[in-house]
Specification:
The complex is a heterodimer of chains A (158) and B (118). Chain A is an alpha+beta fold and 158 residues long. Helix content of chain A is 32%, strand content 26%. With 118 residues, chain B is an alpha/beta fold. In chain B, strand 2, helix 1 and strand 3 form a beta-alpha-beta unit. The chains are: A alpha+beta (158), B alpha/beta (118).
Chain lengths: 158, 118
């Protein structure tokens, strides 16, 4: 009689695809976007689902560079790409201090922006939330992390 | 990765001033976009068409710049149209509701026809 198979652990279910950092300089969100695209090359994320992921990664990296790291080039934005069970997770971490930004992501009021009653900016979190299946923001005294989740497989993607 | 700065050419069609956009629409694009829009606005047509055929990247700052152009067009009672957006950016224009205020056409021909009949 053979030994029973050992129980699956969290480590069995989690696989890191890429881990890298980009300097906080304007335009570097595209670098993060391309590195994540390369990391997920062998997953079933294609076409419009891939474009959505790319936009979410770019916007989250921009937020991290601008609001967290104040565009200080020497302060990196760290990106981790992993697969956990049936989800793709992208974690983007900056060195922001204080409370993490509110989860936000509500639709901006375009009419108010067109009438000049609000700044035309403020689309980032809304775009991120619209592009992935789940989004969450956590933080402590020295870091903020935004986690993007895309469900993999036939049901995955928005 | 090098940023592809925005280059804009302005041309006049019978009923529409066309902005041919080439490059990325991000924070670096503000001056080029606003300068070209002012040039198109001076051409005294009722309609201005943004041709996105040469654009492969628009970020949230770029969306804000487009909102700014739309606000200028509304203030001067001009119509702003868009054409040649990729499928992905058509979706972005839909979810941001930009397409509620700026008609989006698959190509320049259909946009120009619309401009000429209205």
């Amino acid at each position: 009689m053979s030994d029973p198979k050992p129980a699956r652990t969290d480590a069995d279910l989690r696989r890191t695809l890429a881990e890298f950092a980009v300097p906080s300089e304007p335009g570097n969100e595209r670098l993060a976007m391309e590195r994540v695209t390369e990391a997920v090359r062998d997953l079933d994320i294609r076409g419009e689902n891939l474009e959505r992921l790319k936009t979410a990664v770019a916007e989250a990296t921009m937020n991290a560079m601008e609001h967290g790291n104040k565009y200080r080039a020497e302060v990196p934005v760290e990106v981790m790409v992993l697969v956990e069970d049936r989800d793709l997770l992208v974690r983007i971490t900056d060195r922001g201090s204080g409370l993490p930004p509110a989860q936000g992501g509500d639709a901006p009021d375009l009419e108010a922006k067109l009438e000049g009653m609000q700044t035309p900016r403020g689309w980032g979190l809304f775009l991120i939330k619209s592009m992935v299946d789940e989004m969450s923001i956590t933080g402590d005294d020295g870091h903020h992390t935004i986690e993007l989740v895309v469900h993999l497989g036939a049901q995955g993607g928005k | 990765m090098a940023v592809r700065h925005l280059n804009v050419e302005v041309r006049l069609e019978p009923d529409v001033a066309v902005l041919d956009l080439m490059g990325e629409i991000n924070g670096f694009a503000e001056e080029a976009l606003n300068t070209a829009y002012a040039e198109a606005d001076a051409k005294d047509t009722k309609t201005i068409l943004l041709n996105f055929e040469g654009v492969d990247y628009i970020n949230s700052t770029g969306i804000a710049l487009i909102v700014g152009l739309l606000a200028k067009a509304r203030a001067s009672h001009k119509r702003l149209l868009a054409c040649n957006l990729s499928e992905h950016y058509v979706e972005i224009f839909n979810i941001t509701r930009l397409s509620d205020f700026m008609s989006v056409f698959p190509d320049e021909e259909s946009a120009v026809v619309e401009a000429s009949v209205s």
